[in-house]
Design brief:
two-stranded antiparallel ribbon; disordered C terminus; membrane; Kazal_dom_sf; OATP; transmembrane; about 625 residues; Growth Hormone, Chain: A; three-stranded antiparallel β-sheet; transport; mainly alpha
């Protein structure tokens, strides 16, 4: 019981840390000025590390000391999380773009854009520290964590399934799966708390921070949750070093098993087998033998269908989990903290409830293979239907002069290529920096320079930019204010997406336990751990790793304006086409759901065909 509790605690910790890293990913992206494709690689690095050893762990799981195997993995997790937080302490302080309190020598002066650039330090300093490639520490650290976390899942599920009755197994696996879903909820909630705190708290005077969490330059304390994970893993892993290799397990005893001579013989056989596993080479079988046996099984077609379902749903979850916080930030103007809270407190609980309900349905009505497949089809179809409204709910892109609307001074009715216009061509504006200002008619300009402003005035410590040539008629007598005109033009619409996604999660959750059981029921008992391991291997190769990268590339394709730091030469997106972003992001989710529905229907036809043959043989 102690070992099971420690394993569950270990599992809970790993999924908590995994989803916490996703909840703070947009802040990491902003802190290190990364495009979404690179931040997707950061997110996938855990799975890449996991992939490198998953097949080996699945094969060796029953041949080594399991508690110490887990303890060694926990040690790697401890080291990995330390690597993840190193950039925060080795790098320079975060420098953000805010002109609202920039001091000026007088209330009216002519300036060039270079004079209001937010980077107060030299390029040499930033190149060496803050804007260097320190995010690579995070990638390497997450890969080490992926290697350390590999032993947990493939050994746990098969153990429960082997030591429970056929129908109780559904409930127990449902409980374990629910625990793995509670972890993500806690991870997002922890991210919501940490992202409200300034990234460099304790190193700077917080009173000098003039922006709030909704500001486009805000970066929360992304590293703080990883410190919590370091402490938790140190506490959880310590007892595992002292566990024995084998514990007594409850078994259903038959009359024959109760005979003293049989019990004595079993103990002797067990001892001899342990000695053989100790002294013979550890690879006393080969992968090829297990794979060939798996290919020859009559249920191999079922196994392939289940893998397609498992992979397509995993692809969807990998993409959504990685970028859903950023999606709510971009599409509805929510802060990273608010977005993480909505996902952790509202969205994921529906998934947890759905998973528990699906487990209860399987146990209560004692669903067999056909019943579980039908449950999956119903759940997938309802989940797909509930997700469709999210494809249409969204806000328009904030009006940006030269990007989404023409300059007011332009005679053209369509947007010209580039963000430069005749009204600001003499200003020689930096075309790679985004410091938005708001002008008349709620039009946002990329910078005071792009608004054609030549003077600045300061009142009550706040800067305004005047004598602007790009504001339209009488523009030179008007001024622009610091910041975007508004964060979102339909912020309340986010609740429609939250409701849609929560219901979709609920119906998807009803299928999770059934998928897990079908994956184990479609292979021979001796190949159960190997089959689960191969399934996880395929999931990582086709879903967990390419999923975030595909979503990230699609998100980058919807970018309207790329900013570039003049010191690091690293580009990152600051303005997105909201409609293109939404259609691509939600559209890819719907495509993955369609693939799972098709695979479930094919699996249903195979099971019905098999049961028809079985009934025909019985009648004869």
């Amino acid at each position: 019981k102690i070992e099971k509790a420690m394993n569950l605690f270990e599992l809970l910790h790993q999924v908590l840390a995994g989803t916490y890293s996703r909840s703070v990913l947009s802040s990491i992206e902003r802190r290190f000025e990364l495009p979404s494709t690179i931040s997707a690689v950061v997110s996938s690095s855990y799975q890449i590390g996991n992939l490198t050893v998953m097949a080996l762990v699945s094969y060796l799981g029953s041949k080594v000391n399991r508690p110490r195997f887990l303890a060694a993995g926990s040690l790697l997790l401890f080291i990995g999380y330390i690597l993840v937080v190193l950039p925060q302490f080795l790098g320079d302080l975060y420098v953000f773009a805010d002109l609202s309190t920039t001091s000026t020598s007088n209330h009216s002066q002519t300036f060039t854009f270079a004079e209001i650039t937010p980077h107060s330090t030299s390029c040499e300093m930033e190149e060496e520290k803050a804007n260097s490639n320190m995010y690579i520490f995070i990638i390497v650290g997450m890969m080490v964590c992926g290697i350390g976390g590999a032993p947990t899942q493939p050994l746990g599920l098969s153990y429960v399934d082997d030591h429970a009755s056929e129908h109780n197994s559904a409930l127990y696996i449902g409980i374990i799966t629910t625990i793995t879903l509670v972890g993500p909820a806690l991870g997002y909630l922890m991210g919501s708390f940490c992202l409200k705190i300034w990234v460099d708290f304790g190193r700077v005077d917080l009173d000098s921070i003039t922006i709030d969490p909704k500001h486009q330059s805000w970066v929360g304390a992304w590293w703080l949750g990883f410190i919590v994970c370091i402490v938790v893993i140190a506490i959880a892993s310590f007892p595992l070093w002292f566990f024995p290799k084998h514990l007594e397990k409850p078994e259903e005893k038959t009359k024959e098993d109760t005979k003293p001579e049989v019990t004595k013989l079993k103990k002797k056989m067990f001892y001899l087998q342990s000695q053989v596993n100790t002294f013979l080479p550890i690879f006393n079988e080969t992968y090829s033998i297990n794979i060939i046996r798996l290919l020859k099984e009559k249920t191999f077609e079922y196994y392939i269908c289940v893998l397609v379902i498992f992979t397509s749903i995993g692809f969807k979850i990998a993409g959504l989990g990685t970028f859903v916080v950023k999606y709510l930030e971009v599409a509805f103007g929510k802060s990273a903290s608010q977005s993480s809270f909505l996902i952790g407190a509202i969205n994921l609980p529906f998934l947890i409830i759905g998973t528990l309900l699906g487990s209860v349905i399987i146990k209560r009505w004692k669903l067999q293979k056909l019943g579980m497949v039908r449950l999956c089809i119903c759940g997938f179809v309802l989940s797909f239907a509930c997700m469709i409204p999210s494809f249409f709910i969204g806000c328009d892109t904030i009006a940006h002069a030269g990007l989404t609307v023409p300059y007011p001074t332009s005679a053209e009715t369509e947007i010209a290529d580039g963000v430069e216009s005749t009204c600001n061509s003499m200003c020689h504006c930096d075309q790679n920096t985004y410091i938005p200002v708001c002008g008349p008619a709620n039009i946002t300009y990329l910078s005071p320079c792009h608004a054609g402003c030549t003077d600045t005035s300061s009142e009550s410590g706040k800067n305004e930019y005047t004598s602007c040539s790009c504001l339209g008629a009488n523009g030179t007598s008007q001024s622009v204010t610091i910041g975007r005109c508004f964060v979102s033009n339909c912020e309340e619409s986010v609740w429609g997406v939250i409701v849609s996604k929560s219901l979709s999660n609920f119906f998807s959750g009803m299928c999770i336990t059934a998928i897990m059981i079908l994956k184990m029921r479609t292979v021979l008992p001796q190949d159960k751990s190997f089959g689960i391991g191969i399934g996880l291997l395929v999931y990582r190769v086709l879903a967990a790793i390419p999923g975030p990268i595909a979503f990230g590339a699609l998100i980058d394709s919807s970018c309207l304006f790329w900013s570039q730091n003049p010191c690091s030469n690293r580009s990152y997106c600051t303005v997105y086409d909201n409609h293109k972003y939404r259609r691509g992001f939600i559209g890819l989710v719907l495509i993955a759901q369609i693939a799972s529905i098709v695979a479930a229907i094919v699996l249903h036809s195979l099971v019905v065909k098999e049961q028809g043959k079985y009934t025909f043989k019985q009648e004869h």
